[in-house]
C-alpha cells in the first residue's frame, strides 16, 4: 500500500540477462519480503537488497526452473525470515538474508512403485503447503508441513486437483477436484438435461465441466464444505489452459486461465465473449454471482474490485465499476488499455497496476488518467513485477528476446513527489456530445492537472481501446508540432507549466467535432492557451485568431501581452455557437512568415454552457419504380434545459408524399424520440437525388431546426440486397483451426511483416439471383471497432469453401482484386464499389485481403450485421 504514483527510477542494474530464464518459459514470478528481492535464474536463486541492488547471496540449485507458471504452480514461496524453493521431490528452506540452507522438506510417502514431485508451494502462518504430483498441472495429494519442526501436519487425498485452482485464505485451503460422482453430476445438470434424448443427455453429462469445489481447514486439513458446480464458461474455449481460483474477503472467485498472448484480434472479434467468472461464498460455497465477462487475461483482485481486463467489477456483486466520461460527462463502464505486445498478466496493489504494454506499462488507479509507459525496457512474458517494500521491483525478464530494446537489466521504482508521466486514456463510449474537452496540442500523452482535469494529447496516441478523437488540422507552410522538456523549460503564470512545453507552431485551422447532427446547436466557452517558448521577440510573432469563421482577436502578440517569454497567456471566449464542429483559425500578419512569425498555440479547452436548439437526425432513403415507398426513422433529441412542445413538419418534393405531414413533438430535457415517416413516390420518377424537408416548429411557429431527408431514386433501375450466407476468417497463428463462428471477421497483414503468424484473411459468400442486367455492385460492411488506414482489397474467390470447414491451411486462393476498402473508422458503415460481373452467377465468393499490417475487423453474420452485397440492375 505504500507504493503509489507518481513513480521515479530508484536504481537499475543486476540481475541482467546472465543467469536469467528465457522469457518464453514463463517461470515463477519474483518474490520480496523485508527489503530482500528473491529472483530465480537458470540453476540458481539469488537475493538482492531491494533498495540499492546489492547482491546479498547466490545459491546454485540444479534444475530449479519450473516453466509455465502461468498455468502451473509456482515453486517459490517466502515468509519473514525464509525463502522456500521446491525442486524435484523436495523443498529447500533458505535463510532470506544469507541464502544458507536451513531445512529440507520432503513429500508424504508416495504409493509403492510411484515417483512423485513437489507441485504446489505456499507458506502461511508457520505452515508449508505442498502437493504431490505424478505429472505437471495437477495432483492427487495436498499436504501441510510445520515449518519449524518439519512435522507433517496433515495430508488430503483427492482425485485430480489442478494446481492453479488452489488458493489459501482466512484459515482455509480452497481447490477444485475434477473427480465428481455421477449422481452429483446429474443433480447439477438436471436443468440442462430436461427434454433431451438419451444420447444428447449422455453427451451433455460427458462434456459439461462439473467440478467438485472444496474447502478444508488449513491447520488440520479437515473438510469444511464441498460442492459440485457446473463451471461452463470458466472451463474450455479458445486458448484455455487451466481452472484458477482467488480468495479475498470471504469471496472465492473461479475463472479460466487462458493463454495470454497478443490476442487483441480475437478479443475484438468476440472470440472471448463466452468466458465466465463465478464467485462463491468462501464460508459455505453458495453462489454470490456468475456472469459472462469476456475478459482477455487472468483476472486479479484489488481491494474490493475484481479487475478482468479491460474492465472492473464489484467483487461481491459482480456489477461493473463505472466512472464519468471526462468528455461527455456520461457515466459508463471503467476500462483500461494496454496497447502493443501485451502477453502476461498484471500485478498490482490498491494504488497501481503493472503489466507489459509493448514495454513496461503501469496504471495509476488513484489518478485514473490512463496507461503510462516506461520505454526502452521489455517486460517479461509472464509476471516479473512485484510491489513490496514501498517499491516496484522489475527483475530482468527479456532474456532470449531479439527485439531492439536498449535496456536488459533490473529496474526498481519508488514513489516521488513530482510526476513526469503521460498516459493513454481509455474510453468505452462515444466522445459526442462534448460537455468538456481539454486538449494539449503536441503532448506525448494524456495527463491530469492538479484539479483533476484530464488534458488529452492531440494528435491522439494510438493503440487498441485508447480514446479516439478525430480532429482536422491544417498547418501553414513550415508548421509543425513541438515538444520541449518540462524539466528544463519553466513556464510562469500557470499551475500546470508542463502544458505549455508542448504545442503547435504554424497552425492554420483546427476543426474539433463537438456535436453530432442529432444534438442540435450549443453555446460553448472556448479557452485558448499560448506561451512563447521559442524566444521570439515582441512584435515578431503576431497573428489574428478566428472562431467559427469570425475574428475574435487581432494582432495578438503573445510575448508582449503575457509580459515576456515563458509566460502563459489564456484567452477566453464565451457564447461561441457550435453546430457539429468548432473551427479555430490562426492567421499570421506576415504574408510569408518565417518560423519566428508563425502562430503558436498550446492548449484548447471547451466547456458547454448550454444547448440552444434541438437536434434532428434524418436517414437517407433509396427508392425505385419497384420499391416506391419506405419508412424513415427520424431522431429528435433535446439537450436543452427546457422541455420542448412543438411540431415536426415534413414537406415532400414534387412527385413524393410523406405521411404524416405533421407530428407533435414533446420532449423533456435530455430526452430523445424516434418518429416514423412513410415516404412514397407518387408517380414514376427519373433517376436522381431528391429530399423531404423537415422543419421542427416551436409553438409560436418559429423554426427550431431544419434538416433534409435525402432520397436516392433509382428510376427504372432496381435494387437487391443479398446478405452473406457464409463468412469466416482464417489466421496463420492457428492454421488448422476453423474460425467461422466468430462475431467479427479479422483482416491483418501480420504483426511485423506481411504474412507472418498474425496474418488473417476474411472470406464472404453470397447466394445471388438477379432478374436483370446488373449496372453496379457494392459490398456493404460494418466495422467491428478496430479501425485501419486501409481495410484491405476485396478480391474474387473462385475455389469452393464452406464456413464450417475453411481453415488457413485449407483456404481458397485469393484472386482478382475487385475493389479497395480504403480508410476505416471505428464502427463505420462502409460501401465498397466492386468491378465484378454477376451475369449467370448464383453464388459469389469474396475475400478481404490485407494490404498492410494495420489490423481491422468487420461484423460477421454471427455478430448481428451480416455483410451485404448490394446489386443495382435494370430489367
Rounded to the nearest angstrom, the distance between the terminal CA atoms is 75 Å
Q: Count the helices. How many?
A: 5
Indicate the CATH class of the domain at 430-610.
Mainly Beta
Query: How large a portion of the residues is in β-strands, by DSSP E?
Result: over 45%
Low-pLDDT stretches: none
Cα-atom radius of gyration? 32 Å
CATH architectural group of the domain at 430-610: Sandwich
Described by strand count, sense and barrel closure, the largest sheet is: 6 strands, mixed
Mean pLDDT: 94
**SS-derived structural category:** mainly beta
- How is the largest sheet built, in terms of strand order? 36-37-35-46-40-43
Q: Work out the helicity level.
A: under 10%
CATH superfamily of the domain at 430-610: Galactose-binding lectin
The overall strand count is 66
What overall form do the CA principal axes indicate? Answer: globular
What is the CATH topology classification name of the domain at 430-610? Jelly Rolls
Description:
The protein is mostly beta strands and 875 residues long. Among the domains are: 430-610, Galactose-binding lectin (Jelly Rolls), CATH 2.60.120.430; 615-716, Immunoglobulin-like (Sandwich); 719-874, Jelly Rolls (Sandwich). 4% of the residues lie in helices and 47% in strands. The protein is built from five helices and 66 strands. A six-stranded mixed β-sheet has the order 36-37-35-46-40-43. A hairpin with a 2-residue loop joins strand 22 and strand 23 (305-308). The longest helix is centred in the first third of the chain and has 10 residues, at 198-207. The mean pLDDT is 94.
Amino acid at each position: 500500500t505504500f507504493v503509489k504514483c507518481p513513480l521515479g527510477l530508484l536504481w537499475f542494474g543486476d540481475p541482467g540477462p546472465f543467469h536469467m530464464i528465457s522469457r518464453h518459459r514463463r517461470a515463477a514470478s519474483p518474490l520480496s519480503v523485508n527489503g530482500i528481492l528473491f529472483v530465480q535464474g537458470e540453476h540458481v536463486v539469488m537475493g538482492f537488497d531491494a533498495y540499492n541492488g546489492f547482491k546479498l547471496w547466490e545459491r546454485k540449485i540444479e534444475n530449479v526452473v519450473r516453466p509455465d507458471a502461468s498455468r502451473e504452480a509456482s515453486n517459490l514461496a517466502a515468509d519473514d525470515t525464509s525463502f522456500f524453493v521446491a525442486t524435484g521431490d523436495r523443498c529447500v528452506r533458505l535463510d532470506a538474508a544469507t541464502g544458507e540452507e536451513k531445512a529440507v522438506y520432503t513429500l508424504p510417502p508416495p504409493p509403492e512403485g510411484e515417483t512423485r514431485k513437489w507441485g504446489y508451494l505456499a507458506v502461511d502462518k508457520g505452515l508449508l503447503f505442498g502437493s504431490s504430483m505424478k505429472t505437471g498441472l495437477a495432483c492427487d495429494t495436498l499436504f501441510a508441513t510445520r515449518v519449524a519442526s518439519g512435522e507433517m501436519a496433515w495430508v488430503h487425498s483427492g482425485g485430480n486437483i489442478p494446481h492453479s485452482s488452489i488458493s489459501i485464505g482466512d484459515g482455509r485451503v480452497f481447490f477444485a477436484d475434477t473427480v465428481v460422482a455421477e449422481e452429483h453430476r446429474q443433480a447439477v445438470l438436471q436443468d440442462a438435461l430436461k427434454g433431451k434424448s438419451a444420447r444428447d443427455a449422455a453427451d451433455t453429462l460427458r462434456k459439461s465441466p462439473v467440478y467438485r469445489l472444496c474447502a478444508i481447514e488449513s491447520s488440520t486439513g479437515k473438510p469444511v464444505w464441498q460442492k459440485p458446480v457446473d463451471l461452463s464458461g470458466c472451463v474450455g474455449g479458445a486458448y484455455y489452459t487451466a481452472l484458477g481460483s482467488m480468495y479475498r474477503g470471504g469471496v472465492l472467485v473461479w475463472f479460466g486461465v487462458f493463454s495470454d498472448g497478443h490476442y487483441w484480434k480475437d478479443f475484438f472479434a468476440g472470440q472471448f465473449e463466452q468466458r465466465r467468472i463465478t464467485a462463491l461464498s468462501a464460508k459455505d460455497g453458495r453462489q454470490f454471482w456468475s456472469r459472462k465477462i469476456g475478459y482477455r487475461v487472468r483476472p486479479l483482485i484489488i481491494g474490493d474490485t475484481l479487475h478482468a481486463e479491460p474492465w472492473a467489477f464489484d467483487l461481491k456483486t459482480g456489477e461493473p465499476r463505472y466512472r464519468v466520461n471526462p468528455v461527455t460527462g456520461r457515466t459508463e463502464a471503467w476500462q483500461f488499455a494496454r496497447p502493443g505486445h501485451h502477453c502476461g498478466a498484471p500485478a498490482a496493489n490498491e494504488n497501481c497496476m503493472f503489466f507489459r504494454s509493448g514495454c513496461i506499462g503501469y496504471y495509476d488507479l488513484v489518478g485514473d488518467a490512463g496507461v503510462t509507459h516506461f520505454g526502452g525496457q521489455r517486460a517479461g512474458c509472464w509476471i516479473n513485477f512485484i510491489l513490496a517494500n514501498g517499491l516496484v521491483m522489475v527483475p530482468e525478464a527479456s532474456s532470449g528476446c531479439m527485439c531492439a530494446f536498449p535496456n536488459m537489466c533490473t529496474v526498481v521504482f519508488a514513489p516521488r513527489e513530482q510526476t513526469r508521466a503521460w498516459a493513454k486514456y481509455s474510453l468505452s463510449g462515444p466522445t459526442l456530445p462534448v460537455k468538456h474537452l481539454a486538449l494539449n496540442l503536441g503532448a506525448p500523452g494524456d495527463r491530469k492537472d492538479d484539479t483533476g482535469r484530464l488534458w488529452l494529447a492531440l494528435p491522439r496516441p494510438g493503440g487498441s481501446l485508447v480514446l479516439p478523437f478525430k480532429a482536422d488540422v491544417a498547418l501553414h507552410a513550415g508548421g509543425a508540432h513541438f515538444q520541449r522538456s518540462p524539466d528544463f523549460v519553466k513556464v510562469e503564470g500557470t499551475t500546470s507549466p508542463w502544458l505549455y512545453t508542448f504545442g503547435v507552431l504554424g497552425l492554420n485551422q483546427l476543426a474539433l467535432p463537438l456535436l453530432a447532427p442529432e444534438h442540435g446547436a450549443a453555446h460553448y466557452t472556448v479557452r485558448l492557451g499560448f506561451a512563447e517558448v521559442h524566444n521570439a521577440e515582441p512584435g515578431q510573432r503576431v497573428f489574428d485568431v478566428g472562431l467559427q469563421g469570425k475574428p475574435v482577436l487581432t494582432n495578438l502578440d503573445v510575448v508582449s501581452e503575457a509580459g515576456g517569454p515563458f509566460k502563459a497567456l489564456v484567452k477566453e471566449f464565451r457564447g461561441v455557437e457550435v453546430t457539429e464542429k468548432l473551427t479555430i483559425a490562426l492567421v499570421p500578419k506576415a504574408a510569408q512568415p518565417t518560423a519566428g512569425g508563425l502562430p503558436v498555440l498550446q492548449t484548447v479547452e471547451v466547456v458547454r454552457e448550454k444547448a440552444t436548439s434541438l437536434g434532428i437526425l434524418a436517414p437517407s432513403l433509396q427508392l425505385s419504380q419497384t420499391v416506391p415507398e419506405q419508412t424513415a426513422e427520424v431522431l429528435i433529441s433535446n439537450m436543452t434545459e427546457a422541455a420542448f412542445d412543438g411540431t415536426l413538419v415534413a414537406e415532400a418534393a414534387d412527385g413524393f408524399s410523406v405521411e404524416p405531414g405533421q407530428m407533435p413533438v414533446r420532449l423533456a430535457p435530455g430526452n430523445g424520440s424516434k418518429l416514423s415517416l412513410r415516404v412514397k413516390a407518387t408517380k414514376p420518377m427519373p433517376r436522381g437525388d431528391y429530399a423531404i424537408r423537415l422543419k421542427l416548429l416551436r409553438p409560436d411557429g418559429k423554426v427550431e431546426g431544419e434538416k433534409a431527408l435525402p432520397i436516392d431514386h433509382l428510376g427504372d433501375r432496381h435494387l437487391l440486397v443479398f446478405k452473406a450466407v457464409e463468412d469466416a476468417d482464417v489466421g496463420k497463428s492457428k492454421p488448422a483451426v476453423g474460425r467461422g463462428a466468430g462475431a467479427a471477421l479479422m483482416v491483418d497483414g501480420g504483426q511485423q511483416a506481411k504474412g507472418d503468424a498474425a496474418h488473417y484473411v476474411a472470406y464472404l459468400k453470397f447466394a445471388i439471383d438477379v432478374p436483370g442486367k446488373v449496372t453496379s455492385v457494392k459490398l456493404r460492411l460494418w466495422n467491428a471497432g478496430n479501425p485501419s488506414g486501409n481495410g484491405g482489397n476485396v478480391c474474387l474467390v473462385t475455389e469452393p469453401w464452406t464456413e464450417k470447414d475453411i481453415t488457413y491451411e485449407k483456404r481458397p486462393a485469393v484472386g482478382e482484386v475487385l475493389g479497395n476498402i480504403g480508410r476505416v473508422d471505428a464502427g463505420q458503415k462502409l460501401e465498397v464499389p466492386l468491378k465484378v460481373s454477376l451475369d449467370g452467377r448464383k453464388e459469389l465468393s469474396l475475400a478481404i485481403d490485407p494490404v498492410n499490417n494495420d489490423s481491422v475487423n468487420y461484423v460477421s453474420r454471427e455478430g448481428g450485421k451480416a455483410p451485404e452485397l448490394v446489386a443495382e440492375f435494370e430489367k
